[in-house]
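Consider the tokenized backbone below.
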């Protein structure tokens, strides 16, 4: 056998090994790739992307575009319920004072929130928590920051009866109040087959309206194949999100949420903003200080952030994660189980190696989700 064929095969083998090595490097740890390299790494479907940095035990689901629910067929009872729900959503007659509507705290022009750290309700009283955005309210995630409601219908009853919000001491008084409004009779008839106004029908219509508040994002477009939907800076943010910044340990899948509850060190135990979160619902000490992972869809429209609204901007919120979360619990010398739970941060938190350019890239990416 001549040396030339052997040399040719050796050259081809070397090139193949080099290509395989490059592919392996891109799949495993392309942490600081340049714009062109990132375009290459994220050019294909998500299963070909660089491997995300996910901790053991996290039931990770790769990012994917959300399939938005189909709008009801025009003229159908479902469409009539949606229209009724929209009318009720903006009607302050649902409140005891006649001054506060659902839209007062969930304004579409403010990202379906109210732009306040903590919402103000009846008699301008301030509540303890930030108004959650409603984009994915009907997607099946736990509702409220502490997950106390599992359905939109159950969720609606909370603010209706809360003395700090719509302040209906008697929920049974709401339906008669609306029944006296002539414009609602044909709307209830179209939605439910009769003009009878009941609390059950009111919350069902509100729930129907809230199922369709989401809209496509630029990340949806990117994930659907439009690789120019993200700028170079946003693409770098996506890469950091899935790798070195560790965001994807809790924010993943089409909804960008794991649907779980985590302690980020923000219970403020023993301080002005003390809030024990999920513990108030379950009574389990281990749930003290845990709050729901919110969806990040349209997150740049929904400031301020966290359950107490203490973070006005995304860069500051990112820096909180970069230092490994908060340190809010002031423990006594002999803490009880609840105090210990509130001081036990999620094991998913850790100090991150992020510089200001990384923070900028992550914030840019979050503007596209």
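A designed sequence for it:
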């Amino acid at each position: 056998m001549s040396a030339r064929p052997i040399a040719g095969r050796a050259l081809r083998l070397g090139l193949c090994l080099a290509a395989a090595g490059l592919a392996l490097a891109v799949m495993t740890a392309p942490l600081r790739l340049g714009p062109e390299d990132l375009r290459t790494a994220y050019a294909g479907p998500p299963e070909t992307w660089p491997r995300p940095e996910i901790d053991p035990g996290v039931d990770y689901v790769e990012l994917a575009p959300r399939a938005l629910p189909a709008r009801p067929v025009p003229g159908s009872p479902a469409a009539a319920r949606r229209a009724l729900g929209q009318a009720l959503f903006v009607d302050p007659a649902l409140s005891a004072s006649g001054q506060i509507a659902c839209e007062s705290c969930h304004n579409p022009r403010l990202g379906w929130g109210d732009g306040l750290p903590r919402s103000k309700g009846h008699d301008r009283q301030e509540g303890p928590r930030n108004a959650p955005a409603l984009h994915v309210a009907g997607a099946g995630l736990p509702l409220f920051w502490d997950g106390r409601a599992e359905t939109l219908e159950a969720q609606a009853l909370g603010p209706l009866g809360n003395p700090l919000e719509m302040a209906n001491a008697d929920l049974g008084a709401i339906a008669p109040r609306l029944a006296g409004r002539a414009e609602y009779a044909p709307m209830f008839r179209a939605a439910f087959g009769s003009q009878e106004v009941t609390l059950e029908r009111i919350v069902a219509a509100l729930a129907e309206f809230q199922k369709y508040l989401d809209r496509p994002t630029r990340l949806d477009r990117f994930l659907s194949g439009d690789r120019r939907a993200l700028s170079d800076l946003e693409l770098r943010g996506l890469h950091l999100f899935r790798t070195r910044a560790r965001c994807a340990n809790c924010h993943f899948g089409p909804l960008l949420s794991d649907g779980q509850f985590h302690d980020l060190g923000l219970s403020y135990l023993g301080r002005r903003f003390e809030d024990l979160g999920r513990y108030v619902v379950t009574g389990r000490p281990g749930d003290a200080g845990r709050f729901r992972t919110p969806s990040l869809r349209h997150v740049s429209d929904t400031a301020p952030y966290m359950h107490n609204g203490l973070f006005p901007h995304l860069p500051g919120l990112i820096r909180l994660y970069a230092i490994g979360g908060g340190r809010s619990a002031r423990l006594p010398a002999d803490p009880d189980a609840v105090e210990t739970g509130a001081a036990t941060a999620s094991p998913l938190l850790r100090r991150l190696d992020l510089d200001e350019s990384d923070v900028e890239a992550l914030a840019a990416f979050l503007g596209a989700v």
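The longest strand covers residues 261-263.
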